Amino acid sequence: MMNAMSDNLLSAGEFARLARTTKRTILWYDQKGILKPVRVDVSGYRFYAPRQILDFQSVSLMRRLGFSIAEIVSLLKHDHSMRHLFEQQRGALERQIGQLQRMLDDTNRYYANLQASGTLVRPELKRVPSFDMYYIMRQGSYARIKDYHDELRSQFDVLPGNPVWLTAFMTSRYQPARAEMKIGVVCQPGMHLKPGAEARTETVPSYQALACTHVGSTTLLSLLWQELGKYRRQQRLPSAAGLPFADAEFYAPDTSGYPDPNDSLATELHMPVTVR
Fold first, then answer.
1. Closest Cα partner for 218 from 178, 165, 170?
2. pLDDT tens per residue, range 181-215
3. Which of 40, 51, 54, 144 is at 20 to 30 A from 107, Cα to Cα?
């Protein structure tokens, strides 16, 4: 009975030839627990069933589609169906394609901006109407802006959905470690501070600003601020006076209200200027 079964099995070498791969690959898959032989004899020779060629081709397909060895081992261990595997990988590939498309769009935009103005940005001149804001004063690093916004958020009993958050910088100088900032949120009906809250209110008068929007990680914002300042100097536009801050950045209301380097945050940079 054993001999009859062995006659229907394939040695590792035979299996490799039929699967159009190498014996070394087959043995490596065995070591990784992906493609185990159905029998190992007393001499250590491995034997495989002919149907395992299809298993090998399935694993090869998953590798071609970007699955790692660790992912394949985990998926096989949990007995996921091929449909489940493909659905999972399709989602991952779609996210990668989206990231690559954004990188291409950013590259094209920055290239076009450099050709047009010699800077990475091509801002618009925007008139900003007067608005009221709640704010707290903080001095610290740019990296802590998210933490400061969390502090301000915690001071509200009632906070309507999708408020507009902002960071107002008291000087245009590049101070990544000890910047003086107003951490703010634009006032809306229904907002209510907790008793004893630190936040104050302030009216910002109408102003004109060079404005540009960046979508993506906040890690590039310092560079874009430098480019925006370079553009302002090229256009010979003096900085505006009489405002309660030098520059400000506003965060899109549908992005949870504060910067997150891992999120597709939309940040609008405002550099107030005087137009003669």
1. 165
2. 999 999 999 999 999 999 999 999 999 999 999 98
3. 144
Phi-psi region of 256 (alpha: psi -120 to 50; beta: other; left: phi over 0): left
Residue 19 tokens read as 């699967």
Strands (E) in 90-187, as ranges, are: 124-128, 131-140, 156-158, 165-169, 179-186
Q: Which helix (H) or strand (E) holds 225?
A: helix 221-234
Q: Which CATH class is domain 2-80?
A: mainly alpha
Which ranges constitute the DSSP H helices of 118-154?
145-154
CATH level 3 topology of 124-272: Multidrug-efflux Transporter 1 Regulator Bmrr; Chain A (3.20.80)
Tens-digit pLDDT profile for residues 21-69: 999 999 998 888 888 899 999 888 999 999 889 888 888 888 888 888 8
Q: Which residue has the tokens 């960046």?
A: 214
- Cα 139 to Cα 134, 145, 167, 171: the distances in Å are 17, 10, 12, 12
Among 237, 261, 230, smallest CA distance to 122 is for: 230
Distance CA 31, CA 45 (A): 14
Q: Closest Cα to residue 165, out of 42, 65, 248, 46?
A: 248
d(CA 189, CA 191): 6
Residue with the two structure tokens 């536009």 = 237
Give residue 72's pLDDT band: very low, low, confident or very high (50, 70, 90). confident
Alpha-carbon distance of 33 to 77, in angstroms, equals 9
Inter-residue contact 223 to 216 (CB < 8 Å): no
